[in-house]
Every structure is written in C-alpha cells, then in structure tokens.
Write a structure and sequence with these properties.
Layout lengths: L4 H13 L13 E2 L20 E7 L5 H8 L2 H6 L3 E7 L2 H10 L4 E4 L1 H10 L5 E10 L1 E5 L14 E4 L5 H12 L14 E4 L5 H7 L4 E5 L2 H7 L3 E5 L10 E8 H6 L1 H20 L1 H16 L5 H9 L1 E3 L5 H14 L14 H9 L14
Parallel strand pairs: 2-3, 2-4, 7-8, 7-9
Antiparallel strand pairs: 1-3, 4-11, 5-11, 5-12, 6-9, 6-10
Helix pairs in contact: 2-10, 2-11, 6-13, 8-12, 10-11, 10-14
Length: 369
C-alpha cells in the first residue's frame, strides 16, 4: 500500500535535514562569508537595537544576488551602523532553516519550498517571510543529442537539486502535467529524477550519467557551457513570467525582539535591489566578486552573462505564486495541504517601501492578521 502524504512529508523532511552541513566555526552550519572593503562601519555609527551583530544566511547562487551584492557593496553594513554584519553561506535550504531555528542566523535568503516546510513543520512558529528578493532564473537544460523536444524527456534521467526542494517540486509538477507517473520519493517512473547537488550536477551531465537537469542559475548556464541546451525556461509556465525563487525570512523571535534591526536589513535589501536594477552590469560584477570571495572562484562570462539576464530582482514576494508552489508540492505527494495563513509579515517592508515612495506589496491573503 502506498504511503500517505503525511508519511511522505515526514520522509521528505527527514531526507532533507539529513543532508551534510558545511562547517561554520562560529555556529556549525554554513561557511563564513567575508565582507568587501567597502563594508566599513562609518565613524560615529551607533549599534542598531543594541546588537553587536546580525547574522544573515544565503546561498552561493545568483538567485541570491541581493544578498551577494548587499554584502559586497556594504549596503547592509551601512544601514546597521556599528552592528556588524555576519554572513554565512549555505548549499541547501534545510541546513539554513536549521540554522535559523537554532539561532545561528537571524535572517536568511531562501527558496519558497524550504520556507514553506520550515513554517509548516513548526506549526507556524519558526519563521516569517518578510520580503521577496528574486524571480526566475530556473531552466530545464538537456543533452541535445538525447533530448530534442519536450516529449523526449520521457524515459530520461533528469537531475534536480534535492528531494522536495523548489526545483524538485517544479519538475515533478511539470512531469505530472505531461502525464508522466513518477514516485516522488524514489524518483523512479516514466522519468527518472536524480537528486544531485548543484555543485556536482555539471560533472554528472558531462559524464553522461544524467540527460538533463531542472536547476537554478548559475548551474543552468554551466550546463549550457558544457554543451547543454535550454529546453524550457520555467518562467514561461507562470503568469507574466513571474514566480518567486528567493524570499527573505526571519526568526519570529528575532523579529519580535529586534524590529529596528530587521527594518534596517530590509531597507538595505530594498536599496540593493534598486541599485542592481539601475546598474545591472556593475551589480553583476559585484555579485560575481562576492561569489569569488565566498567560494574562491568567479564565474566565467559565458556562464555569468546568460544566468544574470534570466533573473529579475524584486522586493515583491509574489505571494500568490508561493501558494501555487505549495499546491504543486501537495499534488506531487510531498506535502499535506498546508495552512500558510500568517506565513508573511510584510509590515516593515511596506513601511520601507512607503518611505521610499514605492507602492506596497501584497501577501495574497497569507499575511499576519
């Protein structure tokens, strides 16, 4: 008898949280990031909310470029004054959620599926989504010798980053819409889903052990550089080609105890996105410089340029699309129907947007009452 969805959800969460974590000397969860020389504390600056530091987490992905650029160009440090920015890098949403829950980070840039899982697993007590950050930047890239059209995906091996992660859910949903039957846990079926870390996916593709991958940038463009072809851009499946790929989340306790610090980080994030959109080439270079600082290796132009052009940076959390992504996870059998009411608290974001003369954003009925 097939497992019910509650069992599947528990298994999915267990599989996710069992993934290896990177080592961070200070807290045991991510790897430390380094601030650029531009991130200096101004003379006479005061601490925000009396805090010595604010710990922020993000991934080494271009879809998290708001954080990359904000750290690199010193936007966060400027707004936090004498309160030091302490960034940490993660490879996976589950480890970042665990770090958030433990207090090892205070605020994080993260995809929608880990945010949904973190919120529902804690019965709505662990985190709040307080802003959007980016849309797009996800593609299905395939070996053009093996897959020439969408119908050729059947019977092939397609990689996604993790069981139950945002791209995994998106691919399972797309496969179901094509009429393919796939077991969500094993990944076996009319299409074989291979859960593969983004760091090793390009090598697996080059070796021929996978036929394609549904992945975020810059992994998608790395596959293209290895001879792959973009068969589908996920943005084409969404209304107005917009869907949330990165949100900003915060520990609820930190939000309650240090609202001024959260507001400062949000102000910096809004200023960063504004600067990114006004200076795309300089922002792209800044993001790449921070990637090099964090990982020791910058992206080559043939990967960086197409990856960057497929991402839209926005403060709007595109909340309606988060609700749809949750429905996709339910449909795929990876999640019981969740109660997402209250997952958003956009109060401080809208305060910052209003002060800057921008329009407020909407929580699509999922906000804090």
């Amino acid at each position: 008898m097939p497992a019910n969805r509650s069992t599947l959800l528990r298994r999915g969460i267990a599989a996710l949280t069992a993934l290896p974590l990177l080592t961070l000397a200070a807290c045991g969860y991510g790897s430390e990031a380094k601030n650029d020389d531009t991130a200096k504390v101004a003379a006479g600056a005061k601490k925000t909310d009396g805090l010595d530091s604010v710990k922020i987490g993000y991934f080494g992905n271009l879809t998290h470029a708001t954080a990359l650029v904000g750290v690199q160009k010193g936007f966060f440090q400027k707004e936090l004054g004498a309160t030091a920015v302490k960034p940490a890098i993660f490879n996976a949403g589950p480890s970042e959620i665990e770090a958030l829950n433990s207090g090892s980070i205070d605020i994080g840039w993260i995809g929608p599926s880990p945010a949904i899982n973190g919120y529902t697993k804690s019965d709505g007590k662990s985190l709040k989504i307080i802003s959007g950050s980016a849309s797009g930047g996800v593609k299905l890239v395939v070996n053009p010798e093996k897959i020439k059209s969408l119908k050729d995906v059947k019977g092939k091996k397609i990689a996604t980053p993790q069981l139950g992660n945002t791209q995994d859910v998106a691919f399972l949903n797309w496969a179901a819409e094509q009429g393919y039957k796939v077991d969500p846990q094993s990944g076996k079926g009319d299409v074989t889903v291979v859960r593969s870390d983004n760091k090793v996916t390009p090598d697996a593709f080059k070796a021929g052990s996978i036929d394609g991958a549904w992945v975020p940038e810059p992994t998608a463009s790395k596959l293209v550089a290895e001879g792959g072809k973009v068969l589908l851009d996920e943005s084409t499946l969404w209304p107005d080609k917009k869907f949330v790929i990165t949100n900003i989340v915060v520990r609820q306790a930190f939000l309650k105890e240090h609202p001024k610090a959260v507001e400062a980080v949000l102000k910096a994030a809004v200023e960063t996105n504004k600067w990114i959109n006004a200076n795309p080439d300089r922002a792209k270079a800044a993001a790449n410089k921070q990637l090099a600082t964090d990982s020791g290796k910058a992206l080559p132009a043939n990967v960086l340029d197409p990856a960057w052009s497929s991402i839209t940076f926005t403060d709007d959390p595109l909340a309606a699309t988060l609700n749809t992504e949750a429905a996709h996870a339910v449909k795929a059998g990876l999640l019981d129907k969740p109660n997402l009411k209250g997952i958003y608290d956009l109060t401080l974001l809208n305060k910052v947007l209003k002060a800057g003369g921008a329009s407020p954003v909407d929580a699509a009925g999922l906000g804090t009452s």
